[in-house]
Design goal:
The chain is mainly alpha-helical. The chain has four helices and two strands, in the order αααββα. Helices cover 45% and strands 8% of the residues. Strands 1-2 form a two-stranded antiparallel ribbon.
């Protein structure tokens, strides 16, 4: 059984299967192997930013953010790479800590 059609394009069923497999792998990586795994927040926040965008579009993002801080504390995970801080010393603690730089930014 050939995986490609005569034009050399991967069949749609295989493309769909690989896309779904990729998305599941990405979700698992973001949920369980991220550096922000220990920071509490909504379950969807560890996988995608779409839940946050939904509240922004609805217009009550600020109210949802306040509720999440009441529920989870001063540090709340909003997206796979985003954290909201409501602690008064939070910005000072974060900005004075040694942050790991990616290879690209080490030149600057």
């Amino acid at each position: 059984m050939a995986l490609t059609n005569p034009l050399g394009i991967v069949s749609s069923s295989w493309a769909t299967y690989l896309s779904v497999l990729f998305l599941i792998g990405l979700a698992i990586r973001r949920r369980y192997f991220s550096a922000l795994t220990d920071i509490p927040g909504p379950w969807w926040a560890s996988i995608t930013r779409l839940w946050n965008v939904w509240y922004i579009v609805k217009g009550d993002h600020n109210l949802k953010l306040i509720k999440e801080h009441e529920k989870h504390g001063h540090f709340v995970r909003l997206a796979p790479g985003e954290v909201s801080v409501s602690h008064p010393d939070g910005p000072r603690i974060i900005l004075q800590s040694l942050l790991r730089k990616v290879r690209f930014s080490r030149r600057f």
